[in-house]
Amino acid sequence: MTIDLNRIRFNSLHEKVMSADQAISFIQDGMVIGMSGFGGAGEAKTVPLALAEKAKLHPVKITFATGASLGNKIDQKLCESHVIARRLPYQADPTLRKAINAGEVMFTDQHLSETAEQMKHHVIAAPHIAVISAIAITEDGQIIPTGSVGNSAVFAELADQIIVEIDNTINPKLEGVHDIYVPVKRPNRGPIPLTRVGERIGTQGIAIDPEKIVAIVFNDIPDTASSMAEADEETLAIAKNLINFFENEVAIGRLPENLGPLQSGVGSIANAVFAGFEHSNFKDLEMYSEVLQDCTFDLIDCGKMKFASGCSMTLDTSAQRVMQNFDFYKDKIVLRPQDISNNPELIRRLGIIAINTAIEFDIYGNVNSTHVTGTKMMNGIGGSGDFTRNAHLAIFVTKSIAKNGAISSVVPMVSHVDHNEHDIDILVTEQGLADLRGLAPRERARKIIDHCAHPSYKAALNDYFDRACEKGGHTPHLLNEALSWHAKFEEQGSMQ
Amino acid sequence: MTIDLNRIRFNSLHEKVMSADQAISFIQDGMVIGMSGFGGAGEAKTVPLALAEKAKLHPVKITFATGASLGNKIDQKLCESHVIARRLPYQADPTLRKAINAGEVMFTDQHLSETAEQMKHHVIAAPHIAVISAIAITEDGQIIPTGSVGNSAVFAELADQIIVEIDNTINPKLEGVHDIYVPVKRPNRGPIPLTRVGERIGTQGIAIDPEKIVAIVFNDIPDTASSMAEADEETLAIAKNLINFFENEVAIGRLPENLGPLQSGVGSIANAVFAGFEHSNFKDLEMYSEVLQDCTFDLIDCGKMKFASGCSMTLDTSAQRVMQNFDFYKDKIVLRPQDISNNPELIRRLGIIAINTAIEFDIYGNVNSTHVTGTKMMNGIGGSGDFTRNAHLAIFVTKSIAKNGAISSVVPMVSHVDHNEHDIDILVTEQGLADLRGLAPRERARKIIDHCAHPSYKAALNDYFDRACEKGGHTPHLLNEALSWHAKFEEQGSMQ
Questions:
Q1: ipTM for the assembly
Q2: pTM, 2 dp
Q3: How many domains does the structure of chain B reveal?
Q4: Contact pairs from chain A to chain B, CB under 8 Å
Q5: Annotated binding-site members of B for CoA
Q6: Minimal-distance CA residue of chain B relative to A108
Q7: Closest C-alpha among A146, A122, A100, A121 to residue A323
Q8: Distance of residue A417 Cα from the nearest chain B Cα, in angstroms
Q9: Which residues face A402 on adjacent strands?
Q10: Does the annotation count A53 as an active-site position?
Q11: Mean pLDDT, all residues of chain A
């Protein structure tokens, strides 16, 4: 491992360089640890991995907070060593997921914009120690983040002690791409002065008291490449339905020609939608989102996207191209803290079009993003609530069926509500698009069944809705049957 | 009826004075009509009442948008005359409720901050005609609202034609209490420049092109006095539990001494909580809310509250006192448009403590504010979502049982989700208070059952939770039983 002291430009900190094994001696049982990492990019690596190793012999339990999900199987390894007592605000690891669903790890599933806010204002405990991944420490002691900003700024601000992990694998040219703005504590807070997607309102690094840095470690471990399912017939149809809708909205003057700032959840459907933009007539697209994926850079390359703001870069096939030509992208992207990328004030002001993926939605427009059959946590709500709650247009996409048709993604009643009927504007499957704007529940039901449900489930949905309507109510339901589709799936392996 | 032309200080408009019967000739079948009125205060009166009368002989259907609920039985009378095809964004009328639940009127139940925003940006249709209740029209043609601002400013801005209804019953001294700030249309929108509860950022009246005013009518019909159930043993216990919590939060330094700006839903529980503040040690309280009720003015009178910002004044016993001594209150209150009083940007920035009433909540912290047994609309979500979604602390209160114990307000799974587990911090009943901050679902369940459930339902809730946990999951549920309490109530009249 290379120890490149040129990356520590605040010279008095050179003496804080040590091994990860030495650094983890600061981490004590019962502590809250706030660590870098968002969307599998920019996480601290050697420190958590050393902690997982040490805990096999010397058990330790921590509350483990990050930006969002981590690469390098860090959640898996910490979980296997029983280090994680509580996890927040998001995760996407199969081993940890299993422990959460068994009730062994307490998972505080949070809106990603809220962790920083809640820690700052004593709603939840602030970190004792922050472990911050960095490209460098500047002459004035600022910490320059790596491939994500996440919650690193607020963790560093609030923690008593900071461990910096210099990541040798990250191109130093990333310095300058971050824009660190931390809202002051209430009650003395003013407006966040951002009015355009591309504006810079903060500093290039995280400004902290360098005295708080107790250890600096180096790592040579690259970010894990994201792996994305290839687009298939259904994801392409979803993308087509959505792009047709956008084209029509522009044609009738309800959306501006560049649509306005776009947010997109992570995944193959989002990727397909963005790929669809490549061959559309839209131009000057802008993104104000969390994760900048391959598709973001593809749109920049072909001249369709003029600026993308996020809090993380999670790259797969384009990683090498982007990093090698970073000078080209540097004035076209910015990485912000997640309480700025996902901030309700900014989402409302900018008028974001939010596109996120649902596990299932119901005939009245309620959306489940987190729980399989209402009980088993998948990953967490992530930023979908931050955006949906305050978006100009809140859109959810999903395939109309799953497991070869054993599951209908359109159900009488969702088994868990993450986004409710009040917040949803548009639902899209490969079957079509339901425009729910301004509609009452009974109107929505007919549209959703007609446009989004799979043909193999339409008759059953219409039958449920018709019989519920006979009973009456603003939102007609048959309480004894509302969740029976899920129960049937649990018992018989199919909703059919 | 007095026609006082001194109230129309823009003299060229004098010729637009006419009777309500004449004015309603502008209203055509199929139109969207945007009318003043919020919380039963400040509604237009003679125009809708004349419309209800005329429609008995000459049927007409409109989309009827207001600020929120109306006094003077206007919704009832328009509904009985079958005038309302679609109603938004809120209502609280028994006759209209019945028509909504029968599927005869389409009800677009909206977050109250969103109607203005959605009309402005073509998500829903903007009004053809605005009917605006006014104290006066100023020398420069501004319309001065009456006891509420609601959506009047945006309706007037967007409508092709405006009917002004001068309300003789409103004390002209109210002129100056309103602060009309209308965010500009995106994409040219900047921050809303409000950083303190008491700040004024707009104009005293609604500035429009006076050419759009096609009719001015006068009325002598007073606002309907609000009627509030007296505090009982349970509401007083809820108030005590909440105030004990606040005292403790201040003592340990998690809340400032004046708590920070308070929002409160309308109703007897909120009134009891605010009455509780009178005998507390808190001082310099501030309110940033929708409706200013009697209790607001009581707290101002006793020197506990220094400023209250709302979008409506709904007064019962204190109406006369407040109106006769309005000079005393004028620098201590302000009335704003509802997209400012309920704005997510401001709620997040100011750090609002939001206190709203639930119909029911479940063991995991999901809240139902709108639907009785999941199907029948009560009033609508109102502002509870605007505040809860972005509050510093989101608190819901309710009595632990209803209908003499036939209904438990704490259930295994709510029958409709208006506010989900991600957004709820504190739940309170007369039994106690559950502090859910930072907890995972299984931890919340035990706290909610222990602290909030009625003793007569505790065993059954624990039994459900224990058996669900045996099945596993992050949020354990038994899908065949989750809604069985509601189904049993529907079938047998009791959850017991």
A1: 0.97
A2: 0.97
A3: 2
A4: 230
A5: 359, 379, 383, 403
A6: B440
A7: A146
A8: 7
A9: A407
A10: no
A11: 96
